UniProtKB/TrEMBL annotation:
<feature type="domain" description="GFO/IDH/MocA-like oxidoreductase">
    <location>
        <begin position="134"/>
        <end position="251"/>
    </location>
</feature>
<feature type="domain" description="Gfo/Idh/MocA-like oxidoreductase N-terminal">
    <location>
        <begin position="5"/>
        <end position="121"/>
    </location>
</feature>
<dbReference type="InterPro" id="IPR000683">
    <property type="entry name" value="Gfo/Idh/MocA-like_OxRdtase_N"/>
</dbReference>
<dbReference type="Pfam" id="PF22725">
    <property type="entry name" value="GFO_IDH_MocA_C3"/>
</dbReference>
<dbReference type="InterPro" id="IPR036291">
    <property type="entry name" value="NAD(P)-bd_dom_sf"/>
</dbReference>
<dbReference type="InterPro" id="IPR055170">
    <property type="entry name" value="GFO_IDH_MocA-like_dom"/>
</dbReference>
<dbReference type="InterPro" id="IPR052515">
    <property type="entry name" value="Gfo/Idh/MocA_Oxidoreductase"/>
</dbReference>
<protein>
    <submittedName>
        <fullName>Oxidoreductase</fullName>
    </submittedName>
</protein>
<dbReference type="Pfam" id="PF01408">
    <property type="entry name" value="GFO_IDH_MocA"/>
</dbReference>
Length: 361
């Protein structure tokens, strides 16, 4: 087990989750530097968190510090360029969602991974809670029978003041609304658990916020295994909730939470009068209780670095999710059902999830 040198780029609100995870795993990783374009902010962040050096230029930090791992916690529009810089400088990367705002960018990141031998992972921490990981294993083993019906709802509330931050609510800087920036975690978990999606039909709308991007989206999805699902993403919902439901042949599994979960947020139900003791035993055999946190994902990422293996939630793992999000936008814009893998070079939606980068929802 090695102890890695890490740096954080971006010291806004979400960087607090990253530094907490890094400090919790301090026996395995040392934070050597922080970067932010606002000097006072990065200086205060570094002093508060015991980070020895700070910079206002990512390139200078990479050249002087040579970190093994770079955490990117900036607004979405600069993720891509920072990922490429970090990979080419010899670091692996853990980047906040969305990793990038187009399939074209993601495919270039994958190419740079191949060239450098370094890896970039997206922060999709909902995959890394112990109950989610256990559920995934039960699905692989078909312990609950075939998946049939799924529901995925991210119904959150973001008021007008939230969108006064200059980069929010714009295609060019945020890269989308609740489809890209809020519901992405629940949708990624939903898709990861249910397997290869096949086609999607969707609507988006800007119903109540004075923004360029959507404030609500709805989608219907069909999976390769014939399961069907419905998805709602909203920033207009005063009673906030994240809710996922999975109906299998032998059981219903539900997850109710908001920004994270532990084992206690899940519910398991079998059909009335059909209590299958073997299935119940499998569901209840989990004893580990890890939250769906940055720490849980970072721990597995460090394990991958130790073994010089591609980490979970890196570019090939997350491409189906970005393809799905892009397909939601294309379906909503065109009124067509979009097939998985159909958005390729030459399609305007391949170059940006909005189709043009400036299109209004």
């Amino acid at each position: 087990m090695s102890r890695y040198r890490a740096a954080i780029i971006g010291t806004g609100g979400i960087a607090g989750n990253h530094i907490k995870a890094l400090h919790d795993l301090k026996d395995r990783v040392e934070v050597v530097a922080a970067v932010d374009v606002v000097r006072d902010r990065v200086e205060e962040y570094s002093k508060k968190n015991g980070i020895p050096r700070y910079y206002t230029d990512a390139g200078e930090m990479l050249e002087k510090e040579h970190p093994d791992l770079v955490h990117i916690a900036t607004p979405p529009n600069i993720h891509y360029q920072l990922i490429i810089q970090a990979l080419q400088a010899g670091a692996s990367v853990l980047c906040e969602k969305p990793m990038c705002t187009s399939l074209a960018e993601l495919d270039h990141i994958a190419a740079v991974e191949q060239q450098t031998g370094n890896f970039c992972s997206s922060v999709f921490q909902w995959r890394f809670g112990s109950r989610g990981q256990h559920f995934k294993q039960l699905i692989r083993e078909e312990a609950l029978g075939r998946p049939l019906v799924g529901i995925c709802q991210t119904t959150w509330f973001r008021n007008a003041a939230y969108y006064e931050v200059p980069w929010r609510g714009k295609w060019s800087t945020e890269g989308g609304g609740p489809t890209m920036g809020h519901g992405i975690h629940a949708m990624d978990l939903f898709l990861w658990l249910l397997g290869d999606w096949q086609e999607v039909s969707a609507f988006t709308g800007t119903l109540d916020r004075a923004i360029e991007v959507e404030d609500v989206s709805l989608a219907m999805v069909r999976f390769k295994n014939r399961a069907m699902g419905s998805i709602v993403n909203s920033v207009l919902s005063p009673r906030q909730e994240t809710y996922l439901r999975f109906d299998f042949q032998k059981a219903t599994v539900e997850l109710t939470g908001l920004y994270s979960y532990t084992n206690e947020n899940w519910r398991f139900t079998q059909p009335d009068g059909q209590d299958d003791a073997a299935v119940t035993t499998r569901w209840n055999e989990l004893t580990l209780n890890l939250a769906s946190s940055h720490k849980s994902q970072l721990s597995q990422l460090l394990d991958s670095l130790d073994h010089q293996q591609r980490p979970l939630s890196s570019t090939p793992d997350i491409r189906p999710t970005l393809d799905f999000l892009t397909s939601i936008y294309k379906s909503a814009a065109t009124g067509q059902i979009v097939q998985r893998g159909s958005i390729v070079a030459g399609d305007p939606f391949y170059d940006h999830v909005s189709g043009t980068g400036l299109q209004k929802a």
